Amino acid sequence: MTDILKSPRIVEDVRINNDGEAKLKNITHEVHQRQRAYDNKPTSSPPHSTRTLNILRISLQLSQRLFTTKVQPGTTSIPEMLFFFMNHLILLNLFFVIAIYKNFLFIYRKSYLKFLSLTYYPNKSPQVIRDDVNKLSKIPKSVSCILDLKDDDDENGGKDGFINQISELAAWTVSAGIGKLIIYEYTGALNQSHEILIDLNKSIIKNLISYFGTETIPKFSIKVPHKNLILYSHDDNSVGEENGTRDEINLEIDLLSRVDGKPTIIELTKTMSELACNGELSVDDITIDLINEELIELVGPEPDLLICFAPSLNLEDYPPWHIRLTEIFYEPENKDVSYAVFIRALKQFSNSKVNVGR
């Protein structure tokens, strides 16, 4: 059983079937060589739409239909006509009450978020973030964030805005003393080419300089588990070795997408089934522990805290195996990646209690 858990055969087969690299490929040197020759070309982002419901407009339309539409009841009886209009009037009043409540709740939440953004402001200072974190009883070892790629016309939209959001999250995470940051975006827009990873790497370095200065820039790595690629912020030959490199990295950044969720579990199931049919894997050895070890090797460990930067809780096909014991946080009506939401998520985690088993 122990030999099977340590064998890379299952992991390699799944990665090859998912069009990834069988061995971890260090693209740091290749990226740094292509940086100078790279021509930053505009790219079109995947379609993204936000449905907006205008309650006032719907109320006016319903009122207009109620009083202008010619109603032809089945009978001309006055009591029945009065009963018909009374029912519609009650329903319309009920809708008005709910609409007023929803609008009041929306305004309250927006005002509260504005107040939080003024109260919690990092001011590009790691010391301010450390002071906020030191007040907490505990902090997570790894944080995962669900982000949406907005349209180019939206504020902080497009891939440039998306990269800026990740850069800010990286600075907040490393300043808080958290060693791992997992970014989940449904389409995997940043995993499509090395050029985008170059832009992300440069943006994170530039943002870390604004926080820490040029002398003490934290070292970080960017990993794409699906393609089994890794990019280091510093071009060092020793970094590519398996031994002695993890201690040099202050922050590990993983980029996940939909492919790392259910499709990876399906490929893992197919691979184990084929190995079992061929007699290379015993059916008795297929256990929860084995599946857990293989998924950790393929996707990564389970995060302690998951932050959804969206107005409603939508996991967007996040890898289901990796959120079994994860603390999940979101702020209603919030659409921006803000430090206030980030620090409130850390506060909720510090007050949470995880019960494993009984």
Description:
This protein is α/β, with parallel strands linked by helices. Mean pLDDT is 81; it is low at 1-6, 41-53 and 237-245. It folds into two domains: 2-39 and 125-350, Decaprenyl diphosphate synthase-like (Undecaprenyl pyrophosphate synthetase); 55-118. Helix 2 (9-17) packs across helix 9 (262-277), helix 3 (28-35) crosses helix 8 and helix 4 runs antiparallel to helix 5. Helices cover 46% and strands 10% of the residues. It is built from eleven helices and eight strands. The chain has helices at residues 2-6, 9-17, 28-35, 55-68, 78-119, 126-134, 158-175, 194-212, 262-277, 288-298, 339-350; strands spanning 25-26, 142-146, 180-184, 220-224, 229-232, 251-256, 305-308, 327-330. Strands 1-5-4-6-3-2-7-8 form an eight-stranded mixed β-sheet.
Summed up, the domain count is 2
> Helical proportion?
40-55%
CATH class of the largest domain: Alpha Beta
Order of neighbouring strands in the sheet with most strands: 1-5-4-6-3-2-7-8
Strand content: 5-15%
Provide the gyration radius in Å: 26 Å
**Euclidean distance between termini CA atoms:** 27 Å
Low-confidence stretches: 1-6, 41-53, 237-245
**How many helices?**
11
Structural class: alpha/beta
CATH superfamily of the largest domain: Decaprenyl diphosphate synthase-like
Instruction: Indicate the CATH topology of the largest domain.
Output: Undecaprenyl pyrophosphate synthetase
Give me the count of strands: 8
The CATH architecture term of the largest domain is 3-Layer(aba) Sandwich
**What can be said about the biggest beta sheet?**
8 strands, mixed
Q: Per the principal axes of the C-alpha atoms, what is the gross shape?
A: globular
Protein name: ditrans,polycis-polyprenyl diphosphate synthase [(2E,6E)-farnesyldiphosphate specific]
Enzyme class: transferase
Family: Belongs to the UPP synthase family.
Pathway: Protein modification; protein glycosylation
